[in-house]
Design goal:
Number of domains: 1
Helix content: over 70%
Radius of gyration: 22 Å
Largest sheet: none
Length: 329
C-alpha cells in the first residue's frame, strides 16, 4: 500500500509567495523614499580603513561561530575535527544567502552531520538546535548588559521610553530565566515516560543530550564564553562600520541596534530579512536620534549585511571542496 503524502495547507503553499511579496513591497516603498545620489555618496565616502577593520572583525565572529559549534558537538559526543567544523560552518553561511529564511544553512549542516554520523541522528539534530539556542541566549543576555548604556537615548523618545522604564526589571528576570534553563535539563531525563511512548528511545536520547550539555564541565563553559565572544565581535564590527560612515553610534548602541535588527530579520515574514532589516533600521535611526535621512540608515544596514555576505561567499568555495557525505571513521 502506497502511503499518501500529507496535504499541504493553503497557508503553507502561500507562505513563500507572501514572503516574496512582503520583501518586494518594503523594498519598493523604501526605493521611492530614497535620494539615490545621496545613498551613493554614503557608500563612496565610507572610510576604507574602518571598513577593512570591520571586515576582519566579522571574520573573527564567524570563526568564533565555528568554535562554538565545535564545542557543542563535543558536548553531544560527536567527534568532528576543528578544521572540518570550520569548513562546515562556512558552507552553512553560504547556503543562508539564497535559501529562504535564516535556517537554510542549518539544514545543510544537519544533512552532513546525519551522513557522517548515522548512529547519532538525534544528537546531530540537537547540536544544530543548541547552537542556535546558545547564540540567541548570549545575544539577549548581552543586550540586557548594554541596554543601560543606551538608557538616555531610549528615554528621549516616547517609542522607547517604556523599555527604558523596564530596564530595572529586565536584568533580574533574565538572570532567573538563565538559572531556570540550567536547572531544568538536569531533571528532564528522570521524567517517567510511558514504556509504549512512540520514539521513546529517541526522546530519552535527546533528554540525556540536554543534560550532558548543561553538565558538560569545561566544554559547557567554553560554549557559553565563545557564544558571548561571537556577539561581542559582531558589536565591534558594527561599531567600526559606524565609524567608517561617520555615524554617532557607540559600542552599546551598536549592540542594541544589532539585537533589534537580528530579531526582526529572523521573523518568517520576508526572504532572509531583506526589506524588513532596512525598514527597521530606518525606524531606529529616526527614533534613536541618529538622523532623519533614510540614506544613512539604509547604507548602514546594507553594509552590515555586506560584511557577512563577503565572507559567506567563501563558503561557496568551501562547499566545492567539501568531500561527499560519507560516515566518519
Amino acid at each position: 500500500m502506497v502511503e499518501t503524502k500529507p496535504t499541504r495547507t493553503l497557508l503553507s503553499r502561500l507562505a513563500p509567495w507572501i514572503r516574496f511579496g512582503v520583501t518586494a513591497s518594503v523594498l519598493g516603498f523604501l526605493a521611492g523614499k530614497i535620494n539615490w545620489p545621496n545613498l551613493a555618496h554614503r557608500f563612496t565616502s565610507a572610510q576604507p580603513y574602518w571598513l577593512s577593520a570591520a571586515l576582519l572583525v566579522t571574520l573573527l565572529s564567524i570563526l568564533l561561530c565555528a568554535t562554538r559549534f565545535f564545542f557543542v558537538l563535543r558536548l553531544q559526543k560527536i567527534h568532528l575535527s576543528y578544521f572540518r567544523t570550520v569548513h562546515l560552518t562556512f558552507v552553512g553561511f553560504f547556503f543562508n544567502l539564497f535559501l529562504i529564511g535564516s535556517t537554510g544553512g542549518d539544514a545543510v549542516r544537519l544533512f552532513y552531520l546525519l551522513r557522517w554520523f548515522p548512529q547519532q541522528k538525534a544528537r546531530a539534530a540537537l547540536c544544530i538546535l543548541l547552537d542556535r539556542i546558545f547564540g540567541v541566549a548570549a545575544l539577549f543576555g548581552l543586550a540586557l548588559l548594554f541596554l543601560p548604556g543606551t538608557a538616555d537615548r531610549l528615554r528621549a523618545d516616547p517609542t522607547f521610553a517604556p523599555l527604558a522604564q523596564a530596564l530595572p526589571w529586565l536584568g533580574p528576570l533574565g538572570a532567573f530565566l538563565l538559572l531556570l534553563a540550567f536547572i531544568l535539563p538536569g531533571l528532564l531525563p528522570n521524567l517517567p515516560l510511558p514504556q509504549k511512548l512512540p520514539a521513546r528511545s529517541v526522546i530519552l536520547d535527546l533528554l540525556h543530550g540536554l543534560r550532558d550539555t548543561i553538565h558538560g564541565g569545561w566544554n559547557t563553559v567554553a560554549v557559553v564564553l565563545v557564544s558571548l565572544c561571537v556577539h561581542l565581535a559582531s558589536f565591534a564590527g558594527a561599531t567600526l562600520l559606524a565609524h567608517s560612515l561617520n555615524l554617532p553610534i557607540n559600542y552599546s548602541l551598536a549592540g542594541l541596534i544589532l539585537v533589534l535588527i537580528f530579531t526582526a530579520s529572523a521573523l518568517p515574514i520576508s526572504v532572509s530579512g531583506h526589506g524588513v532589516r532596512e525598514g527597521v533600521m530606518v525606524f531606529l535611526f529616526l527614533h534613536l536620534g541618529l538622523g532623519t535621512d533614510p540614506e544613512s540608515a539604509i547604507a548602514y544596514s546594507i553594509l552590515i549585511y555586506g560584511l557577512g555576505l563577503f565572507w559567506s561567499l567563501f563558503g561557496g568555495l568551501a562547499y566545492l571542496t567539501l568531500k561527499s557525505p560519507q560516515p566518519e571513521p
